[in-house]
Amino acid sequence: MSITETSIDARRLQFSDLVFTPLFQDAPDLHKYANVDFPNGYRASVICGIRTYGGNQGLYEIGIIADGDLCYDTPITNDVIGYLNESEVEEVLGRIQDLPKRAAKSAA
Predict the structure, then answer these.
(1) What is this structure's pTM?
(2) What is the pLDDT of residues 40-66, one digit of tens each?
(3) Shortest CA distance to 32 belongs to which of 43, 44, 20?
């Protein structure tokens, strides 16, 4: 499965900038997602589907990713954020973009 990524610069990301890909190629209407990599080391995973928070209503869910895993320790949230409309997705993406640079994970 290929991951569709949108890399951004200092400008604010608009919902229309997101490139959504079906999560399941054999059932493209069930889930769609887009990933956004930010220069501060975070990634946003934006998803809409029948098993996402708000997906049955056409709303979106965002997970904040750091070091390849869901991140539960940002000032934005300690979980995924669901039930978002397009303008709320833009607002959360802006807040992720404004987070300070994430320290590199040290090798154990």
Answers:
(1) 0.84
(2) 999 999 999 999 999 999 999 999 999
(3) 20
